[in-house]
Amino acid sequence: MKKMKNKTALRQKYKALRNSLSENEIEEMSLAVANKILTLPIWEKTYFHIFLHITEQKEVNTEFILHLLSGKDKEIIVSKADFETRNMTHFLLTDNTRIKKNAYNIPEPIDGIEVPSHKIDVVFVPLLAFDKKGHRVGYGKGFYDKFLSECKPDVIKIGLSFFEPEELITDVFEGDVKLDYCVTPNAVHSF
């Protein structure tokens, strides 16, 4: 019997799983994810988009990945979300970028040098769950599906997860953008 789940059930399951993690576990697993990212064939690329993790949601701590990217002199891009239009505006992360949490506790740049979606080479994608085919379950607002559809066709999409994949997400639809990789503390899954 294949284990199949819909997005709503998966959102509940993985929010509960994440909530059960201690701060130490989150730090250790986030570091393990960052170390696995070093093995990906992405390091000749220039423009890397990364989400600034929401501590309250117990997301993968992206600080470690930020250190990797700056250590390799990559152009780092962070976004600001507009909840009315579901659009994301992308800014170059520099020493002068001021970050402020929005109403949803999402750390965002206040302003800065804008970068168009089509310039981005690699996107680290937040998610709650993913399956063995590379489909992901996010928070359900559609920001990343919209953003990824605006990127160039060969943009590399990398999900970050504390947990291993589900067999199959049942209610995937056409607008859902698949991942190229998903990195967990134990493995790199390639789709």
From TrEMBL:
Substrate binds at residues 54, 59. It catalyses: (6S)-5-formyl-5,6,7,8-tetrahydrofolate + ATP = (6R)-5,10-methenyltetrahydrofolate + ADP + phosphate. Its EC number is 6.3.3.2. Its cofactor is Mg(2+). It holds the Pfam family 5-FTHF_cyc-lig. One of its GO terms (biological process) is folic acid-containing compound biosynthetic process. ATP binds at residues 7-11, 136-144. One of its GO terms (molecular function) is metal ion binding. Belongs to the 5-formyltetrahydrofolate cyclo-ligase family. This is 5-formyltetrahydrofolate cyclo-ligase. It comes from Flavobacterium yafengii.
